[in-house]
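Internal ticket #5521
Category: modeling
Description: The requester needs a full-assembly model to guide mutagenesis choices. All entity lines are attached below as received. Residue total reported by intake: 200.
Assigned to: D.W.
Attached entities:
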Amino acid sequence: MAARIGLTGGIGSGKSTVLEMLRALGAAAIDADAISRATTAFGGAAIPAIAAKFGPEYIGPDGALDRNRMRERAYAHPESRKDLEAIIHPLVGREIERQVQAALAAGARCIVFDIPLLVESGRWRAQLDRVLVVDCEPETQVARVTARSALAPDQVRAIIAAQAPRALRLAAADVVICNEGITLEALRSEVEQAARTFGL
Ligand code: ADP
């Protein structure tokens, strides 16, 4: 049985870097966000059900979910969010399972689920053998993100504040990679060590 690992971490923690390292070691990666976005994009599996449930006006001229309109609706009718999730989540679950089966058929020994909101949404845990959290100090997150993007430090702090608190994320972890005060090479050896325990 291939190990199913959930990978998460705050913005700028280094989780994309860790994911690439795990892939290089032979892990199959599943991008939960991309799968979720695809369901509401042009031609996405959720589009017909969204039009049926909320009305065709919630589908934009580009054939994708009109996110602004849906956000306004969810603001006025909070239950709409649940209705939308009830459409999207099963489709995401099915697509993930399809990708898992494809990875297993291709001989994957470890499948890493890249789930930015793993801790926030709580619905993933049951599908995972272990939760891997990449952790660092908040100011290191700020420094990394401002170095790679046009965001100002306070904007990054606001994003961090909107994400799961660090303590909660660490409490949900089975394995923590501490990506603080270490070089990328040292990070790689941390990842290799964790990867061995994942059967890689
Ligand atoms: P996340 O996916 O968690 O937002 P990334 O993996 O994209 O974070 O890392 C953010 C930035 O910090 C990237 O430019 C990455 O190369 C850099 N970085 C991550 N870890 C280290 C490290 N230990 N040393 C130096 N740079 C790092």
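Resolution: model delivered.
Comment from assignee: Residues 9, 11-17, 144, 148, 179, 182-184, 187 surround adenosine-5'-diphosphate (CB under 6 Å).
Ticket closed.
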